[in-house]
């Protein structure tokens, strides 16, 4: 048991639930590369004159040379499950006149190529201040779990690349539940596996869906991690918003 100090809030907790992308790992270090690969593949099959740009489609932000430099915190790249992303890409191909079967096949091919690219690069980097905060969690004996819209196997791999896998007792991906975020099923599942009730935990995430999931699941506090004004604006349901992990601390006593 420990007290989490976040802003003007002090909460007694026994565990923390973390989102993965943008919360544990720097979002663009991994998914920027992944999205660039998908867009490069997709560009050969869609018209550049379309009223629907690839940035609009995926929720990315590109420079004038077509290089992805950022993302929309409310967009699908940030929030969608792998299956939802696949459906978006397939729809875009279908919109261009490809058959639905061909669209699905091409989307899978693009994703496989993008997965292979990030596997080769292994560019996942932890969020600033995360290793120190995880060290505090371990020192205080807190139980930790990851609840992510990614598939479990991918999540485990990404945590291993950053050398932080061993901090987490359980990793729950979208493939382990019937209902993804913002439904609270992941919260209930994670707490059951940790041997805790939701009110003994805090939810930390970078998307409003994380905040909504935590509140619906009954956690003690929802903490948003946001690096800029736009990201902060997107976290409207967060109890507390922190710019980085150095704004959070743990103590055995008040």
Detailed description of the structure:
There is one protein chain. With 254 residues, the protein is of the alpha/beta class. It folds into 2 domains: 2-26 and 125-251, HAD superfamily/HAD-like (Rossmann fold), CATH 3.40.50; 28-121, no CATH class. It is 43% helix and 18% strand. It contains 10 helices and 11 strands. It has helices at residues 27-43, 54-58, 76-79, 82-95, 100-121, 130-139, 152-161, 185-194, 208-217, 229-234; strands at 2-6, 9-13, 15-18, 60-62, 68-71, 143-147, 170-172, 201-205, 221-225, 240-242, 248-251. Strands 7-6-3-8-9-10 form a 6-stranded parallel sheet, sandwiched between helices. A 3-stranded antiparallel sheet has the order 2-1-11, with helices on one face. A two-stranded antiparallel ribbon has the order 4-5. Helix 1 crosses helix 5 and helix 4 crosses helix 5 (100-121). 44% of the residues are buried. The model has no long low-confidence stretch (mean pLDDT 92).
Residue share in β-strands: 15-25%
Helix content percent band:
40-55%
The tally of helices reads 10
Task: Name the average pLDDT.
Answer: 92
Q: Which radius of gyration do the C-alpha atoms yield?
A: 19 Å
Remind me, CATH topology of the largest domain?
A: Rossmann fold
Note the main sheet.
Answer: 6 strands, parallel
Shape: elongated
Helix and strand sequence: EEEHHEEHHHHEHEHEHEHEE
Give the neighbour order of strands across the main sheet.
Answer: 7-6-3-8-9-10
Low-confidence stretches: none
Oligomer: single chain
